[in-house]
Amino acid sequence: MRIEFLGTGGFHPNERRHTACVLLPDVGVAFDAGTSLFRLPARLQTPDLHLFLSHAHLDHICGLTYLLVPLLRGEIRSCRVYASSPVLQAVQQHLFSQALFPVWPGFELVEIEPGQQYSIHGVEIAHHPLPSHPGGSRAFRVDWEQDRHPKSLAYVTDTTVDGNYTEFIRGVDLLIHECNFADNMAQWCERTGHSHTTMVAKLAKDSAVIRLALTHVDPQHPEDDPLGIETARRIFPATELAEDGLVMSVD
Predict the structure, then answer these.
(1) How far is the CA of 27 from the CAs of 50, 61, 121, 245, in angstroms?
(2) pTM for this model (two decimals)
């Protein structure tokens, strides 16, 4: 399974990172629709797109408007957008209001329901609420079988690390987790509903995942190592800082 990081920044884009989107190109699944979504059509390997939204903050949904032209041109045959009812309402009533973006691209909206899983091209996608972020967010887990072996990944963004979802992500081959702040900014985590380096690394260790990719980096810090990656690796060695354009695989 290939995983492409189209956008790895939070809040707003900067010269180095656009905002959130992770694409599984070979099965036509993506998570979040930030400013990086303009990169998706050229990388999608299926005619249809299944797009899961963690929440309705602009840095995670504004890219939905970018899909209008690819859908009109037939570059993408169809797009299903999966999210909770409040998120879908925000997309319809606000992002695509007559005053802001008056043309509906023709998405099919699928309301996520508690306990519901979704089967798409051989992968199973489950979800879990993340209440610590203002307005709430949602984590996703993808499970599939490869060469008769179970494989998995989890996408967790816009949350402060707590025990709420540890079991949900336990043992995944790849944990993609937000890390908005370095440790020296830890005091902002609870106030903003985000996480810092040490707490994410400890979560990866405690939940026995195989690899960790840090994403959703504070856009005020475009430098090479905004999070203190060695701090994370001392706790959980198999840690990588995701960059826009990074391609990983779970084999």
Answers:
(1) 9, 21, 6, 18
(2) 0.97
